[in-house]
Amino acid sequence: MSDSPRNIHFILKGEVSNLNIYDYYLEEIKKESLMLAEKVSQGIYTVDESLELLDQKRKKLGEEIENGLVQTK
After folding, report:
1. How many whole angstroms separate alpha carbon 24 and alpha carbon 20?
2. How far is the C-alpha of 44 from the C-alpha of 38, rounded, in Å?
3. pLDDT (tens digit, 0 to 9) for every residue of the chain, 73 residues total?
4. Is the pTM of this model over 0.90?
């Protein structure tokens, strides 16, 4: 199974729909992207470093979702 959000197809604790998981995933990645873009503009990270950090965040979120650690309503 790829860690792409399109492949997340389960319900956590009977309270979460696929759409909610997808929305949560996208919102978290969006927030991380904006934060990293700001840090790149401040010279804290290079673009390559920020992309690596974003990829790490994406993978971590996917693992948390797959392991049932994310609860949204």
Report:
1. 6
2. 9
3. 444 444 444 444 444 556 677 888 888 899 999 999 999 999 999 999 999 999 999 999 888 888 877 765 5
4. no
